[in-house]
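Question (not urgent): is this output format expected?
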Amino acid sequence: MIHQHIFASPKPGMTEAAFQDYWLNVHAVKFASKIPQILRYKIDLRLDWSGETSQPIWSGIAEIWLRNEVEQLASMQTPEFLDGARRDEPTWAAFWNTLGLDTDAHVIRDSIGDATMDGRVKLTVLQKRREGLSLDDFRRISLDEQSPAAADCTGVLRHDLCLARDGLYAVGESRFDAVGHFWFESAAAFEAAIADPKVRALMLPDDGRLMVPRYVFPMLTSEHWVIGPQSRG
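Got this back:
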């Protein structure tokens, strides 16, 4: 199963609020969700939080689940993609600032399942391993040490680690190596957790041992299922 992440931002002159509304209520419903190979589809919309210190790079994330590479390729050849979703992108998104990352998901800890609830939030963290650390070692340390410790932090309801797929390293390097997801009961619960330096160090590592701190990109979001949580078809 491919768990694809697409990070996007508003086109010039469009407010973040208008961008998020169009993505969730127009593009996702009228265009992207019509692509038949997509099994599940979720939109994560960026929320403000106290730890942000600069202009956000992205304002939301699409999460898309596809069965395999064959169906992923087929999806990009459908009229629903070519004449629908792709053609609609310039209407609302700065497509030159879009980042896509295909991953394999690993559920580290889960007490809530896939259903969304009002008020619940998710911290998503893009990660890049430090120079000199092999991909195998990064994955091993992340799965066996870093992620289990982060999942045990107070307030974390669920933690998934999504590792960039092997095919992204066939020629050169993937821009990022992983995406971490942390669910919390509320924005207040997240803020309380991240205020603890020990928790922050586990979720947003800045010591350079495992990741490059300047390439650790966090985004607090609210989740919105478009197709799901049950798979279509």
